[in-house]
Amino acid sequence: MAAMSTASPPAVLVTGGAGYIGAHTAKALHEQGFLPVVFDDLSSGSRGSVRWGPLIEGDLRDRGALTEALATHRVSAVIHFAGLIEVGRSTAKPDLFWEVNVGGTINLLTAMREQGVGRLVFSSSAAVYGQGGRGPLEAIVETADKAPASPYGDTKLAAERMISAQCRAYGLTAVALRYFNAAGADPSGLIGEAHEPETHLIPLAIAAALGDGKPLTIFGQDFDTPDGTCLRDYVHVTDLAAAHLAALTVELPAGAFEAVNVGSGEGRSVSQVVEAVGRAVGAAVPHGVGPRRAGDPPSLVADPRRGRELLGWTPRHSSLDEIVADALRWERSPAYGAGRRDPANRRKSSAPA
Ligand SMILES: NC(=O)c1ccc[n+]([C@@H]2O[C@H](COP(=O)([O-])OP(=O)(O)OC[C@H]3O[C@@H](n4cnc5c(N)ncnc54)[C@H](O)[C@@H]3O)[C@@H](O)[C@H]2O)c1
């Protein structure tokens, strides 16, 4: 599907569009001539991040609300970000994660079928791979073994499998994008990452360097990697947003299901990230070293070839320095507070109010 210059732009339902990656994709949709209709329960997203289309406050577990949203806005396709994302919490509350991430996705697919909406882009994750059967530093291809190391990863893999089965059964066309580490922020400073609690390395390192957060803990310095810390693949959130547009508009036959890695293909170590943040802030990141976290593989780096071949997508803004510069601009931006759900948890901003 392509956006045409008609009086009313084609509407795309963006579940979780008040969250980090969803808000960036809503902006990209708007810029490409689509109307992003956000469906979000605001459990971790924020009203302040919904700027490019209407917000429907609703829960994925409420199928009637999903059906109504699709019908009211005459939605032609869905990008499905909504869900629970904290890996640690998924171990404590696996039932809740299955209910929202898998049950909620079933509701969405049923509502789409009822309303004749046949196109889906789904937020999957590198968490579907776990360590699998590959070599410790091997780049990951989509066909690699799937061995999720957490209930969170289990729910992403289960949702993918259920979507793919519904493609075969009902002619739905879907692309699952397996993100590696989303990072950075829109260069406008209007939207960015504001998870609560924040568990991602770059915002935690920035907060530590700015003196706004706790000293950073590096989990493990004895991995079999060049500097002993874990290697991860950071992809700029605006590159991620562009991958969603490509997945939405790529020509695929009815009933096709594709799973595609979204990563830069470059492994960056935790120590390299800490150094990059120190350079950008102009102050060293206070940090200590703790034990490895259970299930943390030494390396999670995408083989990005499939994204290039199928979607014509390549990352353009995913150098570590650009990611960190944009993340820092966001943390210093006046909009940072508005992008957070609970103002009581807002960290100090060095920007004028
Ligand atoms: N951030 C990453 O690095 C990363 C990596 C891999 C995969 N993902 C996936 O990408 C998606 C978006 O992640 P994010 O980082 O933007 O997270 P986020 O928490 O910022 O966004 C998730 C959004 O979903 C909403 N939501 C949660 N439960 C809901 C429900 N029951 N009904 C309606 N809305 C609900 C939240 O309010 C929030 O706005 C998630 O599915 C996540 O699993 C993220």
CATH fourth-tier homologous superfamily:
NAD(P)-binding Rossmann-like Domain
CATH architecture level-2 label: 3-Layer(aba) Sandwich
Strand order of the largest sheet: 3-2-1-4-5-6-11
Stretches with pLDDT under 50, minimum 5 residues: 338-353
**CATH fold type:** Rossmann fold
Strand content: 15-25%
**Largest sheet features:** 7 strands, parallel
Quick check: average pLDDT? 91
Helix-strand makeup class: alpha/beta
**Percent of residues in helices:** 25-40%
**How many angstroms does the end-to-end distance come to?**
42 Å
The CATH top-level class label: Alpha Beta
Q: Name the bound molecules.
A: nicotinamide-adenine-dinucleotide
Counted by DSSP, the helix tally is: 11
Order of helices and strands: EHEEHEHHEHEEHEEEHEEHEEHHH
Basic shape? globular
Rg estimate, integer Å: 19 Å
Number of DSSP-assigned strands? 14
The figure for the number of domains is 1
Structure report:
The protein has 353 residues and is an alpha/beta fold. The chain has one domain: Rossmann fold, CATH 3.40.50.720. 36% of the residues lie in helices and 17% in strands. The chain has a 7-stranded parallel β-sheet with strand order 3-2-1-4-5-6-11, sandwiched between helices. Strands 12-9-14 form a 3-stranded mixed β-sheet. Helix 6 crosses helix 8 and helix 8 crosses helix 10. It is globular and about 55 Å long. The termini are far apart. The C terminus is likely disordered. Bound molecules: nicotinamide-adenine-dinucleotide (NAD). The site of nicotinamide-adenine-dinucleotide (NAD) has 28 residues, from helix 1, helix 4, strand 5 and strand 7.
